[in-house]
Amino acid sequence: MSQGEGKPAQVAANTLRGGHFRYYDFVMAAFVAIILLSNVLGAGKVSQIWLPLYNDYWPFGAGILFFPVSYVIGDVLTEVYGYARARRVIWAGTGAVLFMALMSWVVVALPPAPSWGNQAAYETIFGQVPRIVLASVCAFWAGEFVNSYVLARMKIWTGGRMLWSRTIGSTIAGEGIDSLIFYPLAFLGAEGWTTALVIQVLFTQWALKVAWEVILTPVTYLVVGFLKRREGVDVFDEGTDFTPFATRV
Asked: Could you list the residue ranges that cross the membrane (predicted)?
């Protein structure tokens, strides 16, 4: 693709089949890294913050610190490179999460050396509960595809204008699906998780993730503008096959 600094040319996504982009691989790597970190560090921990107006502590999932960045990157992928290339990255992220879960199970299951006394702590940190892994993969897969689909459709509807409307709108839809799948599937009925807590954390996560998207909108504008200028194209998903069950571009 063109690497010029001029105004990017508006092109239909299906005309770029098989084309090479300068920064696409880097954006993919950032996306997969964020997904892996969010599953390792933040998925199962509930923290809390003090809300003065609420006059009480409010629980939230610790993954909120960085998981929403994956939706920002997902927005950038779809906006700059189109739905098909975003779809390819979502499948790469799904495969990476599944491989991480498998290797976590294998490494935790390996018999520890008698002189190494950290097995219990290691199991606490890296032990993957199958229910949570299933919930995480299903929620991530569905949420990211909804996010990408909504953004791609809205880009056509808006004629490429009002980027903020489709990044925020797609996040409302995608993060909503993600939270609706993950928290009930992972924690409903689990020890220490009441139904009220699951519902409370679910809606808190959804609201905070959308808020993150709003806060990071100026950054999204900068990154999208930079990539479009450097890649030399502005991709519209006209005539795109929106099935999620493909990896071709």
From this structure: 26-51, 57-77, 89-112, 132-152, 209-227
